[in-house]
């Protein structure tokens, strides 16, 4: 079983950038598609981005396309979310997620392992 630990959240001004990292433990990391979800106060958890096991296929929700980039390094067992041109509406707790069927589904039901979350706050 994979365990996930996020880092890199914080406070940033609108227009700024942050890079989130998600470090995985466990021997089967490369077998999972990996993704990022976020949850703002009072809202449901929503899909942001996903990457397949090899890093060759990615998927993004429309609101972050062109601003966010997901990538993974299987040798380091780490997945990244580079977030540029941040907006106040990007403020949320960001969760790393692992799931063999996650790519293309975008649904929390296909997440097998969640990280604990990291808070991103974008000030206007």
In short:
With 124 residues, this protein is an all-beta fold. The chain has no helices and 11 strands.
Please write the string of helix (H) and strand (E) elements. EEEEEEEEEEE
Number of strands: 11
SSE class: mainly beta
Instruction: Please describe the biggest sheet, giving its number of strands, its sense, and whether it closes into a barrel.
Output: 7 strands, mixed
Total of DSSP H or I helical runs spanning 4+ residues: 0
Which percent band covers the strand fraction? over 45%
- Give start-end ranges of low-pLDDT stretches: none
Tell me the Rg in angstroms. 13 Å
Structure description:
The protein is built from no helices and 11 strands. Strand 7 (68-73) and strand 8 form a beta hairpin. Strands 2, 4, 5, 6, 9, 10 and 11 form a 7-stranded mixed beta sheet that branches. It has a 4-stranded antiparallel beta sheet with strand order 1-3-8-7, with no helix packed on it. The radius of gyration is 13 Å and the shape is globular. By secondary structure, the chain is an all-beta fold. The protein has strands at residues 3-7, 10-13, 18-25, 33-39, 46-51, 58-60, 68-73, 78-83, 92-99, 113-114, 118-123.
